[in-house]
Write a structure and sequence with these properties.
Layout lengths: L15 E3 L3 H11 L15 E10 L2 E7 L5 E7 L8 E5 L7 H13 L3 H7 L2 H9 L8 E5 L5 E5 L5 E5 L9 E6 L1
Amino acid sequence: MSSPSSAPAPSPCAGTVRGGPDHLRGYVEDWLCGRRTLPEVPLDIDMTWTFVECDGAAGSSYCSYRNGEGSDLILRVPNAQPETVTEVRVDRTTFAADADEYARQFVEAWVNGNQPRVRALSTPEVAAFTAGNPPPESGYEVVLSPSEVPEFEVRSSGSDYLLIVRGRLGRPNAITNITGT
């Protein structure tokens, strides 16, 4: 007499996904649950993904999911085959060791509305300032000001700002102060 066989329990998913079109949410969920591989995505980042938007360009839509650290998972979907994902990219939040690059990453995150990345790159006070003030307008420039600590002027046709980088570079929260000028 044989004993009933039990199917192996499904493996737990490595993360969660919220929002977006059903087929894209299913695509990301399949990856998180081990039913699909995405070698483009590093496994050492926050695996809680929330739908941001889909934008069209050159015959395709690029749909983004964002995690709590501000990294973006970008899926390319051809307009002629809207159920198919043809490319996967990751725009990962990184912490530059160079003050100029760190400041530029911060301003780019602010301009693009990536508040999780702004929070990762700055102190809570700076993140709160950016949430309540308009970002620089397109065509902005980030210029190092002469001083003992790295200060960057952010100039645009709209509002101008002064950023101070005092935290340890290569780590979170290095943008420690911001003021309007």
